[in-house]
Amino acid sequence: MGRLSGRVALVTGASRGIGRAVAIEFAREGAHVIAFARTEGGLTELDDEIRKVSGESATLVSESLTDFAKIDQVGGAIFQRWKKLDILVGCAGALGQLSPLQSYTPKMWDDVFNVNVHANWRLIRSMDPLLRESDAGRAIFVTSLAGRRQAMYWGPYAASKAALDNMVLTYAAEIAHTKMRVNLLDPGRVRTKMRAAAYPGEDPATVVPPEAIAKVFVDLADPACTKNGELVLAQP
Question: pTM for this one?
Fold first, then answer.
């Protein structure tokens, strides 16, 4: 019996990087994983790994989070099958171009905000009723240090993470009287495709793999977790 035995968990950005590692760790701990990502091939490979660690398959959703109507459809499908959602992990993120603020086109700016902020708001909007039906609904959203400092050339990414932080902490305050718990998680320096794009000269061997921080997500998803409205650092 794992710590998440019998729980239903929706993980976005699940086909690679941190989302993939979290999905596998959740499955290892007994959760049924609903893996949401654009890359169908990556989801299929993830499902193979989940079968290896749990003996069961995941539910795969190969859609773009920025097709916001799909989020509502997924929420409806979860209700039809399970009547609740125990865990929501907003892990999908977009870096965008690293350049001076005036160099971005409106579309480039909107693309980053659509993934990092608006999609997560749509997730909250659609999944909140399902999380409230759980005996211990847990929501975890992945943030970044960039949103808490003046990060030159990281304009839309930094601004979107700052907006995400405020939005999630507001949500946490609003649900504080319920059985739910909502938190932010800063993974720190993790070996992902996004980090490689941001730091092309960095030796990946000097950065921890996503699997090294997956247990922190389990801690926050556990029904025994009492944290709410906190920013949790995955690495000291």
Answer: 0.97
As annotated, the active-site residues are: 157
The Cα–Cα gap between 143 and 21 comes to 16
- Structural domains in the chain plus CATH codes: 8-233 (3.40.50.720)
**Among all chains, which residue has been given the structure tokens 């909250």?**
124
3-class SS of residue 163: helix
> Per-residue pLDDT for 209 more than 90?
yes
Q: Quick one: which H or E segment has residue 162?
A: helix 155-174
Q: What is d(CA 109, CA 176) in angstroms, rounded to the nearest whole number?
A: 33
139-151 exposure pattern, b = at least 16 Cβ within 10 A, e = fewer? bbbbbbebbeeeb
β-strands 32-37, 87-90: how paired?
unpaired
DSSP 8-state assignment for residue 192 = -
Q: How far apart are CA 104 and CA 108, in angstroms?
A: 6
Name the residue with tokens 């050339």. 153
pLDDT at 166 over 80: yes
Give ∠ CA 33-39-45 in degrees, rounded to 5.
Answer: 60
> What does the pLDDT look like over 12-29, one tens digit per residue?
999 999 999 999 999 999
- Report the SS3 class of residue 145: helix
Positions of E strands within the chain:
8-12, 32-37, 59-62, 87-90, 138-142, 181-186, 231-233
Q: Beta-carbon neighbour count of residue 2 at 10 Å?
A: 15
